[in-house]
Design goal:
The complex is a heterodimer of chains A (about 230) and B (about 250). Chain A has about 230 residues and is mainly α. Chain A is built from 10 helices and no strands. The termini of chain A are far apart. Chain B has one domain: MetI-like (MetI-like fold, Orthogonal Bundle). Chain B has 11 helices and no strands. In chain B, about 45% of the residues are buried. The model of chain B has no long low-confidence stretch (mean pLDDT about 85). The chains are: A mainly alpha (about 230), B mainly alpha (about 250).
Amino acid sequence: MNAILGALEWFTRAQQWSGPDGIPARLLEHVWYSLLGFAITVLIALPAGLVLGHVRRGRLAGLTGFLVTSSANAARALPTLGLLILAVILTSAGDLVPILIPLVVLAVPAVLVNTYAGVRQVEPGLRDAAEGMGMRGPQVLLRVELPVAMPLILLGMRTAMIQIISTATIAAYVGLGGLGRYIVDGYARQDYDSMAGGAILVIVLAVATQFVFAGVSRLTVSPGVRARG
Amino acid sequence: MSPLTAVLASEAEPLIRWDWIERNLGDDIAEALREHLILSFTPVLLGLVVALPLGIACARWRRVYPAVLAATSVLYAVPAIALFVVLVAFTGLTYSTVIIPLAAYTLSVLVPSVVDGLHSVPAHVRQAAVAMGFGPLRRLVRVELPLAIPVVMAGLRVATVSNISLVSVGSLIGIGGLGELFTTGLKRDFPTPIVVGIVAIIALALVSDMLLLLIQRLLTPWERAGSGGRKARRAQEKTLVTAGGER
């Protein structure tokens, strides 16, 4: 219990709140890396998931379905720390790019699979109605399938963002800035107050992200879709 | 010589040095693997033991479920490294520090899958059991729980695979099973242990996943006859895809 009190005391020290190793700077760094990784992830995975889910005719559609769903569980097996260290050792260390690669690789499956599943789950009757009204493929996708799949797409995005925040924390071990620095540097100095302080900040950030996504979902999911639950 | 092999040959350090693997397979790697198995499977068992009664309770008293679901979904969002660090204050640098958070994640995945599994039992099956004179307890144990197995197993597969990969994060506080190979590799700027660690963890996860699938097949012979309900299949897929989320 004393250790937790020590961590709380850590927050009250003046030097924690200014300079490049201060909490505001580290938090900003962490949010910046996370948003960057998130943007790249969504740019890759969202269009891919939408198109894969939308195309359902042809021999390949069944195979992609199987591959996408099994990639969901296979992706969970990838060890974050191993990928980060390997990426840094094999490329020049200290750069942001080698860290962004595992960051994105680990987050893409969540968005891809949920988007795919969301579009796939749209009732055939709904799609037929859209086609009957004269909509073409892309219109059906963007004006019917996308809004109906929105809750699952947002769930995938939230899972990806949480994953990215966690990976970015661990990336401090290979030299990235952000909140993970307090944990890694604290461990190296045997300074538990700093480690626990960093851990508490990461928890706050992750939980805050959950709430942000709950808010976004209220704004973007159409009331009709939400009511059907 | 192609350009790629030329580059690889010119590197001072090859990606994999087989002699290092041979020298360390016996004790270091085997010991890391043993630790990894303990650290990843104990939480699965602990989580299952708690999740079954909790899930059954949530399926019965539906008003409790949203609150439990909100709690588990927030818990699932907290990064493992943060939980490990906080727990160090209470459990020190012991196996429990890694096992407790992973058991909590397992619980977060399994409670919804137990509830979904029980809800996937078709109403007419339940009515048939009642008509045959089954009381609530016997109906649960003999009819509802067996039919929920595929969905619960889907949750168990997700939890096991993620635990196996998450254990390696523990190496940041010195308790990481095969993850120790990663920190060793970084300290010596030497890729072989890292590649060995990644391959071993992925292989362990895939083998465990297949074993669980096999167990599921043995436990549910009726599924092979193709009589598994559509509702149950949907719930299984949902667990595999969206586990940890709140839907």
